[in-house]
Write a structure and sequence with these properties.
The structure is a single chain. By secondary structure, the chain is an alpha+beta fold. It folds into 2 domains: about 5-115, Rossmann fold (3-Layer(aba) Sandwich), CATH 3.40.50; about 130-235, OB fold (Dihydrolipoamide Acetyltransferase, E2P) (Beta Barrel), CATH 2.40.50.1020. The chain is built from 7 helices and 13 strands. Strands 8-7-6-10-9 form a 5-stranded antiparallel beta sheet.
Amino acid sequence: MDDEALARRSLSSLLEAESDFEVVGECADGRSALAAIVRREPDVMFLDVQMPEMDGFSLLSELGGQRAPAVIFVTAYEKFAVRAFEAQALDYLMKPFRRDRFQASLERVRRHFGANELGQALPGSRPPDRMAVKCGDRLVFITLDSLDYVRAAANYVRLHVGETTYEVRERMTDMEMRLPRERFIRIHRSYIVNLAALKDLYRAGDGEYLVTLRSGRQLPVGPRYTLLIRAALTNAQVPRFGGSLGI
């Protein structure tokens, strides 16, 4: 649902290339979108924030929790990120976005429905509690609770599990797609952290922020991720210590 025809067409083209997604409609304003959602009952919608007649948040309010499909916000404005996650959005895509970032959003939709095909939930499915990664000639199983953070390193990522580090030949974007969004968050182009490992988020001065992990390690927060991490911490009800939060 977007008031820009080119943006709608581009999004539809990307979705039509996915075998497990079907585009059931496009709308240019909030009122039309509301009517289409009630009539067609889609599983997921890609929603702009600012639209004629009714904005994205008003649309969700009109729908109510039971009828509303899963939502991915697609917008050029960073300032609505906190409200989007408070509205239980699956993701927040900033325009213009890269194709790999869009693919990460689709993976979140697939995980949300716990299915191989959209909307067909697997009976008894539950979120995984560990993942397998290839380290050299070894296959290592890592429990998600023990994974503190992930750091990008050229064509590799480094998984920091307590005092142990595993180097995996994988792109950061691919690793972000593998990790459950409700438990891990990107805080920087080079870092993904486990929400359960976060101890503190504070202002370091000159507009910069840092997070402190349970291990005592400090990591930088990228400028464009500040609002997103604040929203994630609020939704996950993670305690934030120190009076210097100031976001």
